[in-house]
Amino acid sequence: MATVEKGTISVQTENIFPIIKKFLYSDHEIFLRELVSNAVDATQKLRKLAAIGEVKGEIGDTTIVVRLDQDARTLTISDKGIGMSADEVKRYINQVAFSSATEFLDKFKGQDPAAIIGHFGLGFYSSFMVASQVEIRTRSYQGTPAVRWTCDGSPDFTLEETDREERGTDIILHITDEENKEFLEEQRIRALLNKYAKFMPVSIQFGTRTEKTGEGDDAVETEVPDLINNTAPAWTKAPADLTDEDYQSFYRELYPFAEPPLFWIHLNVDYPFNLTGILYFPRIKKGLEVQKNKIQLYSNQVFVTDEVGDIVPEWLTLLHGVIDSPDIPLNVSRSYLQSDGNVKKIAGYITRKVADRLDDLFRKDRADFEAKWENFSVIVKYGMLTDEKFEERARKFCLLKSMDGSYATLEAYKDKIAPEQTDKNSKVVALYANDRELQDPYIKAAQRKGYDVLEVDNVIDNHFLSFAESKVENISFVRVDADTADKLIDKDEAFESVLDEKDQDKVREVFTEVIADGKVFVQLQPMGPEDGAVTIIKPEMMRRMRDMAAFNGMSFLAEQPEHYNVVVNTNHPVTAKLLRVRGENRTRMARQLYDLALLAQGMLKGSRLTDFVDRSVELMAPKAESAEKAESAEAGTNS
Asked: What is the CATH number for 164?
């Protein structure tokens, strides 16, 4: 009969298990990643030994199998790797892990306890976060007797010989606590395997699936192993071996419900650090309606995290894809990660690769680049705002879009508009609109003056325009509703008013009475008869401050009433007509003109909008009655 050995792990363990069971509990699902990773390591070691002739004969099927037994309340991870002898169990399970964990605790005392997972062989002990008892059944590839090791999460263990014919290791978790019963649910385990083991380099089976062969009466359904991972994902292959369809297919594998990407960058460097991966540019329509944390970080094909903000620049977190590097310290404190030399080099490398790729696309096929620009411009602009080195490169391919659909780089656009849009102080004034529909009257008024208007409708553009003013010499950006068309670009050119000073005072008086808001300034301005009778203008700097407050979440500022002025065109025929009416009719007409200006800016709402509609119907009624009488009179004459 085999000897049963009982013992106590002879190192200072009193502080280890409480950390494993309590402090790591927020990351308790990570145990499955660690156990499956260990199984992968054992399998890969066997393959390497076989490759150099240390293992005789065929190694056979090396698929790792994950099994649930809900009746027995066990979860088992089985591999056919190198296995362990009794001496190796004592050395690697009882001694190395715990002694090294104690060393780790001393070294990183006071830091995040979750950092212990995956370091110094402690990954195996993460199983005690969810299991009341852990059992190992293992047989070494060298043919020594199989052994069984058990431990209930205390320093006490048992070790005995057992029956196991096959080489490899079974890790059996006995999950009896109600708080961990989720790890006995098939859907939960499948989800965790899909998260952590989707691209591990050894085949992993979880359950079976039905496979149908043949058709009609000859169709046969067979239960086959359900393999949950892709052992050779695209990023592990050479770019020369991949087609565009391969890259697109891998993107669908990562993000099954996403739109196809615009383009991608294949990362592959082995000095001064190791890094592989594929980064995709997703389609971003308007604003930042895109989830960050879409880049997945792997270490030797083992998923680590999708929070990569400390590894890549913040603006690059808008990209999608995979980064795989064994050189990134994955389980130490954030401050240590931020100061790590390799991490800084990796961030710089990725930034350069992105800039190179964009520059290459711009130069080789500008038409295609322009066609896709609206879908990724926010990424480029965000990068320019936050990364000085990228900004220097991106000036060559960052584009501005005019309302006519044409594109130009910053410097080229300045040169394009300079002849018509330089003011009396020799500053080039670039006009823009952020809502083509709402600002259409202002856009057309500017275009009638011969001015070009930019289409700027991204949430980040308010910051970007201010940034561009600081980078491009002698240019300013002004929204088309910041002033009347003939004042947007001050050229000392002005119309003469047809109204004398007395009539202008009457016009100012009636609009001041109608507006009844001391914060709104009524401005009389002679313009062309084709320009609007009454115009709402929003001072550029006040509007920018408000927009920036909204972007930065400063709701108390963003929700303040809008600051605007009212400009009355003293040369418009309607203004002259206003002076010919008297009393209440003059007031009603002025209110109608003012409300029309508010309506053009989308600022007429609630009860004021209702009043405007009712008033408009009333104003039309006399005309309708007159028309009806005229028709009746004509009908009587004809009869």
From this structure: 3.30.565.10
